[in-house]
Amino acid sequence: MSRNSLDRARRMWAALARVPVTFPGPGHVAVVVSPESWLCPPGWTGVVTLDGAALVTVPDADLAEPLRDALLAGRMDPSPLPARLAVRDVLGPATLAYLDAGDFAPAHTGTRVERLPAGHPDIGALAAAAGERDAGESAVEEISSAVWVLRDGRDVVAAAGYRPWLDTAAHMSVLTAARCRGRGLARVVASAAVADALAGGLLPQWRARPEPSRRVARALGFREAGAQISLLVRR
Description:
Order of helices and strands: HEEEHHEEHHEEEHEHE
Number of helices: 7
Oligomer: single chain
Largest sheet: 10 strands, mixed
Helix content: 25-40%
Mean pLDDT: 93
Strand content: 25-35%
Distance between the termini: 38 Å
Structural class: alpha+beta
Low-confidence stretches: none
Radius of gyration: 18 Å
């Protein structure tokens, strides 16, 4: 991952903190009080790590030191945080991966990829069939770009698109019907969406927990640079 792309990602996450802060350098933790943070749900603590550094937003100052100490003790690995802290709920951790244009490995196939507008009912049908868990993980119904799809007959069985974040990143969303997984369809539709994001000057961002999703990202040239986790800490 190039220094330019990493700096773009760092500036974006700092802006999402919703208070003045600079993403720290490797080995350091920046903790800020931000009840309106976009790093996490309201009232939660948000943690983002990139390149061996961490940015944390907390809803009140009492949580600042415990979060800083826990991250430093874990060498910036957010995975142990739920065990180190008294938490009521947790989202993640999920890896954060980014793609430089020069690393892009598009999926070259003879398969015809169709382009649909965001919110098309066939996307909703795919999400409904996938179930709440998989549809929620993919956030495919939150796509605001065009959506690139593959069909089996009349049914959409794979879809990908993105949401622009602060005119900087293209936050990718990909979903494949359960019966069609393992056939490389996710890579094909995601490749089309990534190409569109790069053409628009955006930095493709892939956030994922499941290993199959991470494999798709790596196959396209994404490189994992950090992680994100949200914690509802007991007080």
